[in-house]
Amino acid sequence: MSDRPLKLLLVDQDPIFRLGLRVALEEFSNLQVVSEVETNTAALQILAELAQQDLKSINLVILELGNSRSLQSQQIGLQLCRQIKTQYPNLPILLLSSVQDQGLLLAAKSIGIDGYCPKGTPVTELVEIMQEIVAGGSYWYIFNDTIAQTPPPHHPTTPSPYHFFTRLLENLRLSGNAQI
């Protein structure tokens, strides 16, 4: 890796998240947030402007796949990925997203997206992932299997009292990620 910093474009609807990520990344001298945008249209506009000058002024696009939990928002995010990969096939894209839909992530991977990790990934790990992707690699976070196991025979329909709290904590974590 050269001494030149990685130049990043952040695309996320949430200004607080973008600010937090930018501030966290400022701790790393080998990273530079060149631009941050709220909308897909603004992202395409910035990339078009940079392509006229020198597209190499961006090494990596980091974006939220869906600005909300709606399927429509997620499909629009997937369409943005498709547009970027069509217009700039050599520009790596990392999804830093609260989206966990495996089908949507497989669709993103199939159109050439270079990586995915969930929001909440520790910053040092995120920096390593970004460097790996810019170097030509890929990174796809794998969720734990969520396939429901058959309950024990002596309690076929009664869920464990801990199951409720486990689901509650998971839902709170996901809603917190969505708000960040």
TrEMBL record:
One Pfam family per UniProt: Response_reg
Domain Response regulatory: 7-134
InterPro entries: CheY-like_superfamily, EvgA-like, NreC/VraR/RcsB-like_REC, Sig_transdc_resp-reg_receiver
PROSITE patterns per UniProt: RESPONSE_REGULATORY
Coiled-coil features, chain-numbered ranges: none
GO process annotations (BP): phosphorelay signal transduction system
Superkingdom classification of source: Bacteria
Protein name: Regulator
Organism: Fischerella thermalis CCMEE 5318
